[in-house]
Amino acid sequence: MDLDRQLTLEYVFNFRDLGGLQNSSGQRITRGVIFRSDALHQASELDIGTLAALGLRTVIDLRTEREQNQYGIVDATAIGASLVHLPLISTLWPLDGVDHTTDPVPYLVERYHEMTDGLPAVVPLIVRSVADDDATIPLAFHCAAGKDRTGVIAAILLAVLGVSTADIAHDYHLTSAAMPAMMAWRASQRAAREAAGTADAFDSMVDHPPAFVTCPPDAMTIFLTELLEQSGGAAALANSMGIDADSLARFRFRMTS
Questions:
Q1: Which pLDDT does position 1 carry in this prediction?
Q2: Total domain count for the chain?
Q3: What pTM value is reported for the model?
Q4: In Å, what is the CA distance from 30 to each residue of 122, 141, 161, 251?
């Protein structure tokens, strides 16, 4: 993993800066403004203090309402941030019909295209926060593993900022370095909860098939290439989500150097 962009936390395993990458114009994406993460509701007291030190002002939870109710939410006020709930999908992917023989690439490409219906509720808010509202940044967005929902939002933002599809796919694949520690911790937590009879209150992800827990770069490459071709490019995609040219220009100015 790109260690200089990764923040090491105790019970959050996939938190990193969206900044640091270079776009096609040779500009570096600004650091310290937008962060992506896995389940922030797992944050320990020590993690909360580390996140507060970043100066976070907004936390966007991309999970479903059911996930929030079942597994909890981050204590955003302890971080000094406001919590915004913007579910990218209405229901979790069903496990029926998906097993260890399912090819992750076509499966994920199809799921990611399904997520695009939720983009207009999330991406414009992030763009306008960065472009126009200092009181709401830095911000972080997260889902459960920081892989799929978080990965799609990160990909769209980076594409709009001019980062190449190849570099976006590489960044998406960095999550694979976080998964072993995340899964090991979840397995240990699941075992402890089974012993206490409360396992149903914890999302272990331990038994999920590869399509649910891997992040092959080809999946992001195919999805993003298809989406940009269908939309007519990143600027047209931004416009289709309700982001006007002036807002997009301010966002790009703020996020590149």
A1: 41
A2: 1
A3: 0.94
A4: 20, 16, 10, 11
